[in-house]
Write a structure and sequence with these properties.
The protein is mainly alpha-helical. Helix content is 68%, strand content 9%. It has 2 domains: 211 residues, Alpha-lytic protease prodomain-like (Up-down Bundle), CATH 1.20.1510.10; 78 residues, GMP Synthetase, Chain A, domain 3, CATH 3.30.300. It has a 3-stranded mixed beta sheet with strand order 1-2-3, with helices on one face. The longest helix is centred in the N-terminal third of the chain and has 32 residues.
Length: 299
């Protein structure tokens, strides 16, 4: 990973941690004051986001260390491991919120001071939306798995803040109608709806990270690019070349290629190995990943 990407990761993760601490404190205080389940959930989510961001910041620095006797293949696996932890923790928060919302519905709902809650929600929407937009724009310039996970966290936080504000507007409008007695159900119902909607994001994060940890095949687009590069290498070589395996691990792309030697061409195998590696590197140079290419002589 280049120095520019390292600097960008540190800057984005540090900014994310500072913003998360502000929203966490505000959400918890206001949620307790007005008695809102969704605002307290928003505060808890921001607090957990802060802890997860600090974890990402630590991992980003650790991953950049070179290979040593303990980690002979480097530390690329730490990135999907951190993302898996983040996905699992967010999933637990959403599941607990779903449980709390169902409990509130069966115990008479929750009465909330809609005026204060609506004002806080509007401020949260603006702040989280700006954070989401800024980090997403930085991530487009040079992709990073850790920053992408931060973008998804802030995306969830922004949508959550929108839903929170909308629920309080609805609750306030209901108090002006004959259905005012049902306004106490607006808060848990919105929490219930958000839980079902948001559960997909942490599930996708967890699934994607586990695929990398278990060295499963990457996306179809990456597999297609690798296949095309191996075919091109085969056309430029006198030997038969096969793709033995490919896996994306963090910001690295691991590629194993087998050369099936012709019994009459053993003398040029060393040249073929280097030519094969160079062809694959050239074909895949546009991918925002660090290539780890292993060329084996099959027997």
């Amino acid at each position: 990973m280049c120095a520019q990407t390292n600097y960008k990761e540190n800057r984005v993760l540090t900014l994310s941690a500072l913003l998360a601490s502000m929203f966490a404190g505000g959400g918890l205080v206001v949620g307790l004051l007005v008695g809102s389940l969704v605002i307290m959930f928003d505060g808890v989510y921001s607090l957990v986001s802060l802890l997860l961001t600090l974890l990402s910041l630590t991992a980003a620095r650790y991953i950049r260390k070179p290979s040593d006797n303990q980690f002979t293949f480097g530390r690329a696996l730490f990135q999907p491991a951190v993302i898996a932890i983040k996905g699992a923790v967010i999933l637990l928060i959403v599941a607990y919120s779903l449980y709390s919302a169902i409990g509130s519905l069966f115990t008479g709902g929750r009465e909330v001071d809609a005026s204060i809650a609506t004002a806080f929600g509007a401020i949260n929407v603006l702040g989280c939306g700006l954070a989401w937009w800024y980090m997403a724009s930085l991530n487009k310039k040079r992709s990073s798995g850790l920053i992408d996970a931060e973008v998804k966290q802030w995306q969830m936080d922004t949508l959550l803040s929108v839903a929170v504000t909308a629920s309080f507007v609805v609750a306030w409008l209901m108090t002006l109608t004959p259905a005012a007695k049902y306004a106490v159900y607006a808060d848990p119902l919105m929490m219930l709806a958000m839980s079902f909607y948001f559960i997909k994001v942490p599930l996708d994060m967890l699934r994607s990270a586990l695929r990398e940890i278990f060295l499963m095949a990457p996306s179809k687009e990456i597999c297609h690019s690798v296949d095309q590069s191996v075919v091109a290498a085969g056309k430029e070589s006198d030997q038969e070349i096969e793709l033995a395996g490919v896996a994306k691990v963090g910001q690295e792309l691991w590629i194993d290629v087998d050369i099936l030697p012709d019994n009459n061409c053993e003398e040029i195998l060393i040249e073929d190995i280097e030519q094969t590696r160079q062809t694959i590197e050239k074909r895949l140079s546009k991918l925002p990943l660090k290539l780890q290419i292993t060329v084996n002589i099959a027997t």
